[in-house]
Amino acid sequence: MPRPRIQPGENTIATSAVVPATRKNPKTGEREPKPGYLTMQWRICLWNGRVEKHITEMKTTRTTDVRHRAQKTAETLLDGTGTGPWAPDSDFVTYVKTQSISAIESNQFPKPLRPNTQERYIHVLRLLAAQMKGLTIADAVRPRTLNDALAAIAAENGTATARQCAKVTSKYVMRRLVTDEVITHNPLRDMELELPEHVAKPKPKGGRALTPEQRAAVKDYLLAYEPERMPQPKRGRYSAEQRTAIRERAVDVTLVQAETGLRINEACSITRADVDDNANPLTVTVTAEVSKTHRGRTVPVMDDRVADRIRERLAQVSQEPTALVFGSPAFPDRVWDASNRQKAAKALYREMADTLDIPLLREVSTHVWRATLNTEWMQRGIPDALRAAFFGHSEDMNRSSYTDTSSTTQLVQMLRDS
Fold it and tell me: How far apart are CA 121 and CA 172, in angstroms?
């Protein structure tokens, strides 16, 4: 019959048998009674999940003395392994959020992750956390639990996403748990995953775009937006002031995207040094480090009203060149969390869809401005290569033309003339 499993911090002292001790006879090599001594074999599960065997032996005639000494030994062992904040019975989701996701956000690795990679890794870890709610670390790292969670992710988000989640979890969660001595090995290292084959629904090719009139209406709405105090929610993590700050940031970021076609991560990563207020018109530079395609570019802000909004933000942030123009509403010196900014944008888009009678805004993502501007500029006669360069598309597309895209002059002139 298998021995009962003990949990971290538990031991078998109360149930283990105390028996007369024996010793080895040096002459015969046989075991013989050791007069006046009692002994007990017992097990303990340390906070890091490791189970150890121990023997307590002492000169006494009372079994309670042996158990008392064993208990003191157990307390010493647990004190030695319990100094860290994490144990197998700690909440798994809390660990993922405070240790793994925060490490990816801080990005203090020997080879830093690119912003797009950071976003993707954080996204898949949040998918995992959603599947592991309420589980302890000890329960979450069981192979069957992990496989079931990843299978659910595959069914909802595609098998490719689930496999990426497994790789990210292995490196940024399981390895860290081993380092923190919470578990003794990485369960995903040699695990054969059993995942359903599912391809996530592809996005429509070509993107969906607003008309020039709809884009103009959106910009007018955002420029006229008054930062009124948002109502106090009955439930939720944010106060009325925080909700108001989030909405204001969503308005500004959306306005910049609607004018420039920047990706949302690019807009949220703009620093003071990236804005050239002396240019005519004002320009915003997306560095190669921030660009999804690793290709830096400089984009003109043709609408003076939007340029003035950017100037207003510059007046409110630090004078440091690295100061974020559209940082997190709660922590202005940090890039706005990808999940939170998408939620804020979605809420704003729903509001504009109803107010401006543009149903498409309920169905699209923040990428809609790239398709919108690309289509609009195409209709105004801007060459493919020039559009590709200023939307940060692949270099292959730009190599197909000899157009010089190193300056904004040509684009600005064509937009003004068209």
Answer: 9
Q: Which residues pair with 56 in a beta bridge?
A: 40
Chain position carrying tokens 């003339």: 417
Both tokens of residue 201?
A: 């629904």
Q: How many CB atoms lie within 10 A of CB 365?
A: 14
Q: Which residues pair with 33 in a beta bridge?
A: 22
Sign of CA dihedral 279, 281, 282, 286: negative
Distance CA 290, CA 73 (A): 55
* 330-356 per-position pLDDT tens digit: 889 998 988 789 889 999 999 999 999
What tens digit of pLDDT does each residue of 81-134 get? 444 578 888 889 999 998 899 889 888 888 888 888 888 999 999 999 999 988
3-state secondary structure 344-404: HHHHHHHHHHHHCCCHHHHCCCCCHHHHHHHHHHHHCCCCHHHHHHHCCCCHHHHHCCCCC
**DSSP β-bridge partners for residue 53:** 43
Instruction: Please tell me the pTM assigned to this model.
Output: 0.54
d(CA 406, CA 410): 10
Q: Which tokens hold the place of 108? A: 């203090």
Q: How many residues does the chain have?
A: 418
Q: How far apart are CA 113 and CA 110, in angstroms?
A: 9
- The rounded distance, in Å, linking the Cα atoms of 179 and 174 is 9
Neighbours of 255 (CB within 10 A): 22
Q: Are strands 51-59 and 18-24 parallel, antiparallel or unpaired?
A: unpaired
Cα–Cα distance, 251 to 270 (Å, whole number)? 16
